[in-house]
Sequence to fold (577 residues):
Amino acid sequence: MAERNGMVEKRGAGLWLTHLGLIIGVLFIFFPIWLAFVASTVTQQDISQPPMPLMPGDKFLENYARALTSGVNAPVAAMLVNSLIMALGIALGKIVISLLSAFAIVYFRFPLRKLFFWLIFLTLMLPVEVRIVPTYEVIANFKMLNSYQGLILPLVASATATFLFRQFFMTVPDELAEAARVDGAKPMRFFIDILLPMSRTNIAALFVILFIYGWNQYLWPLLITTDPGMNTIVMGIKQMFPSGDDLADWPVIMATSILAMVPPVLVVVGMQRLFVRGLVESEK
Amino acid sequence: MEKRVTFKGIWLPILLVLPQLVITVVFFFYPAGQAIWQSLFIPDPFGLSMQWVGLGNFEYLFSDPYYRASFVTTAVFSILVTVVSMGVALYLAVLADRLIKGSGVYRTLLIWPYAVAPAVAGVLWLFMFNTRVGVVAWYLGLLGYDWNHVLNEGEAMGLVVVASAWGRISYNFLFFLAGLQAIPKSVIEAAAIDGAHFWTRFRTIVFPLLSPTTFFLLVVNIIYAFFETFGVIHTITSGGPQQATTILVYKVFSDGFVGQDLGSSAAQSVVLLFLVSILTVVQFKFIERRVHY
Fold:
């Protein structure tokens, strides 16, 4: 970009070119989603004879109602509920067990403390993708296939969240624990009355990240939910495609895709500040 | 780092770490141990007994041309996803950083695809390039280009790369923008006064100062491409055509669950385990550096 005067601030043509570049980027990001939205508001006829229209049609209510109440294999409303339970279970579960173990590791001296710490640390190296077959066998032995416990438990241990809380607890002034001890407060009183309220923002930021992580899981639900009624919405979309040469029911599939992204997108946009914070913190 | 003030008690803290410990042992260490153990056996055809083969599964694995091809596929795929998503994100972040007003609006508009699941991104891109109804495929046809990712290996790879990179741009954009905004404006102004043009400033000052962010993102994106893109590949190509898009994680799944070849799948899990360990160590090294920077 030409900058004859060497100024850092942009004016005139340079400013417009900057905006233009960004707008092209935004359009590139939006285009696939716009097309999906359009497809979810038109008839199968409109799509099966390409090119499909680029402006929304009038079948919005019809398509979404059909997806939610009947879907292809199972009503999408049920899948939304499954996804919600799984995402909340994973996010809250990770937060609770991480808070407890971080509290123990930071505020107590007990035998094997270092060992526990390293065991938790090592889970970073064991994403579910690496141990799918044996983890599946464990869940099958516990008779947890097609169950919420089976969807949630194997994904609940989190080294990242434990580290984040440990890091944060280390910055809490010692005087607070000292004062609590002098007052004769039990450790759990201190944890509930002082530590938890202080961790509010961290918990919220982490919740945003973990909710999206749980909602967007694909491989694990694909393996353990063979009953369409237990499918989560993100993995259920692929199951809606016909196996043979038949034409897919695109309006319903696209309505389902839009429904699958609405909750996590709302969380990200609505809690943008917490989201950015959570992202940066949890990667530290 | 240790706390000076601690509470007394042994059973309470053990009780507190217990939930995490139990889940970690039952769902992480036991299965990982099983994978390592199973990788040393082959089950008989009826699944009744296991026969010890030592490192036989690994020898077999690495002599399998499909497995070796899967390594190459994974490398090509990861490099492309990382380069495309980081390149686009850096470009957009540099532009947004130039704005005095309005960069917040663009940030809001650009970050939310982070929330779109890889599997959903896969369906969106599949829809655009579907050989029967896809709009982009149709317009390409008008231009005389016959798009068919179901048969053409290069096109299949291109499609899964773009779909995987697309959702990742938001994440990289956020970190690049934060990195750029942390560079003191005075440094850049000083260079501008010395007559350095935009591209010179970027090459000699901005990009080097951004390198901790870039290193960090490189590692994180490679991990993403390795492990989190399963949904994209499963929805768009199912590893095909001719295994052209079968990355390592996809192969563990297809050999273990579709092909029921447990010995080989377990050996592949162990290889992956080894790869994640390396990546995790590298990630920690870079993050250390990032914190001290």
In short: Confidence is low (pLDDT under 50) at residues 1-7 of chain A. Chain A touches chain B through 106 residues (CB under 8 Å).
